[in-house]
Amino acid sequence: MSNSINNIVYYDFPWSKGELYFNPQDQLIKLNFYLTSPILEKNCYISPNSVKFIKELSIYFSGEKITFSVPINLDGCTAYRRNVYQVLVKSATYGKTITYKELSLIAGGSPRSIGQAMKHNPIGIVIPCHRVVGSSGLGGFSGGLEVKKYLVNLERRN
């Protein structure tokens, strides 16, 4: 397994152009909600899984409930974070939220360690950190609170 970057695919999110990173095994390894560097056409290779993921994102943003099936690679994450992400995907399904405290009781750790895991989530939306909320509000979000509100509201409408 590898988390080295083989290609970057650019995607037009509803709020901005972003980046999808795939490794040489055609596994999704990172998703950026915003551009982090100038667009480099030479790094663009439309692989089978990038085409599949773009279709899945389009379905998701159209408001349809979807379970993402693109292969992902979390080799760059700690065992604790990988466990938290697995528990999150199973516990906070489409349209539902879970608090940092609730997730910590299921996955282990503290609400703060859950927050750190969410902050370092390399594959937002697929690993739905936007569904983790504070006990008295939305909590934080590395993509920005407006994006978190957008994603939570998109799922609640459907």
Q: What's the layout of helices and strands?
A:
Layout: E1 7-12, E2 17-22, E3 28-32, H1 48-61, H2 79-91, E4 98-99, H3 100-107, H4 111-119, E5 132-133, H5 145-157
Parallel strand pairs: 4-5
Antiparallel strand pairs: 1-2, 2-3
Walkthrough of the structure:
With 158 residues, the protein is of the alpha+beta class. It folds into two domains: 7-61; 79-157, Orthogonal Bundle (Arc Repressor Mutant, subunit A). Helices cover 36% and strands 13% of the residues. The protein has helices at residues 48-61, 79-91, 100-107, 111-119, 145-157; strands spanning 7-12, 17-22, 28-32, 98-99, 132-133. A three-stranded antiparallel beta sheet has the order 1-2-3, with helices on one face. α2 crosses α3 and α3 (100-107) packs across α4. The protein is globular, with a radius of gyration of 15 Å.
What tags apply to this protein structure?
single chain; 158 residues; alpha+beta; Arc Repressor Mutant, subunit A; 2 domains; three-stranded antiparallel β-sheet; two-stranded parallel sheet; 5 helices; globular
Q: Give the count of structural domains.
A: 2
Helix content: 25-40%
Task: Based on the coordinates given, report the CATH architecture of the largest domain.
Answer: Orthogonal Bundle
For the termini, the CA-CA separation is 36 Å
Number of helices: 5
Determine the strand fraction and express it as a percent band. Answer: 5-15%
* CATH top level class name of the largest domain: Mainly Alpha
Spatial strand order of the main sheet? 1-2-3
Shape: globular
